[in-house]
Design goal:
The chain is built from seven helices and eleven strands. It is α+β, with helices and mostly antiparallel strands. The chain has two domains: 7-109 and 265-270, no CATH class; 116-237, 3-Layer(aba) Sandwich (Aminopeptidase), CATH 3.40.630.30. It has an eleven-stranded mixed β-sheet with strand order 1-2-3-4-11-5-10-9-8-7-6, with helices on both faces. It is globular and about 60 Å long.
């Protein structure tokens, strides 16, 4: 349930969640955003070229031809096109389907105000969570991200650049990550889950949460979620905003008091 934050304000804040990693090519037209993600950021389910938003008064066929022309020049086989309640024209989804677009993903836009008590997520006592505040925890979180998403191991130069950026962001408290571990039989802990948060004014954008498959359903995601909410509120956020998948994190977020504000569907359009 939302009180101070209206659904309209939440949806306006969603645009701030768009990811622009190092090495990405971004096309910001007046009526759409197209991004070519770098190869190091890709995984088996994450397409290289994506239209993350489109709000056009032009004929959609004209916009599609413009977008696919750019993607073709990048040498890519197609583009992933995201559609939500704010997409214009309103028949974008129908037009994409008529052109052979196939739905490949769905996420829910979920929001929770951070006033009052934070949710009791029943985090198991055996799961420990640390702020990523140095090279050890950064390496642990990065390992979980690479393994969890099935990505290629990044080059050393890329990892070093990301580490320096993460430490600068943490020093300013503009962005942070946490990593959760479970105990090992012989002592110590094994990093198994991680997630990030970007703070923009009063909004905490939660992103990048992943748990190693063999350690799911042990409360690790809940631990990562609880710590990000705690730290976000501690540093001035009044709203937590996240994109959750209905089959994984979505039910946990809803039980934690998040409100379902919109649904985004992604269509793969071959070119």
């Amino acid at each position: 349930m939302l009180n101070t934050w209206t659904r309209g304000r939440v949806l306006d804040a969603v645009a701030g969640m768009e990811w622009h990693p190092d090495g990405a090519i971004e096309v910001l037209a007046d009526d759409y955003r197209l991004i070519r993600y770098p190869d190091w950021a890709l995984d088996p389910t994450f397409p290289a070229a994506q239209v993350t938003r489109s709000q056009s008064s032009r004929p959609l066929a004209e916009v599609i031809e413009e977008v696919t022309g750019r993607v073709r020049r990048w040498g890519l086989p197609g583009v992933a096109w995201w559609v939500s309640a704010t997409t214009r024209p309103q028949d974008t989804e129908a037009v994409l389907r008529d052109r052979g677009g196939v739905q490949i993903d769905t996420v829910s836009i979920l929001a929770r105000e951070l006033d009052g008590d934070l949710p009791d997520l029943a985090v198991p006592g055996e799961v420990s969570v640390e702020l990523v505040a140095g090279s050890r925890t950064f390496r642990a979180a990065s390992m979980v991200t690479v393994r969890g998403w099935g990505r290629e191991e990044p080059a050393v130069a890329t990892t070093d650049r990301e580490f320096r950026g993460a430490m600068r962001d943490l020093a300013a408290w503009s962005s942070f990550r946490v990593v959760a571990s479970v105990p090992l039989p012989g002592g110590g802990g094994q990093p198994v889950s991680t997630g990030g948060c970007t703070l923009r004014g009063e909004v905490a954008h939660l992103w990048g949460a992943v748990t190693l498959r063999e350690h799911r359903r042990r409360g690790c995601y809940r631990a990562v979620l609880a710590e990000r909410l705690r730290l976000a509120r501690e540093h001035g956020a009044t709203l937590a905003l996240v994109k959750g998948r209905p089959e994984t994190s979505g039910p946990i977020l809803l039980r934690g008091g998040f409100a379902d504000c919109d649904t985004e569907r992604c269509f793969w359009l071959s070119i």
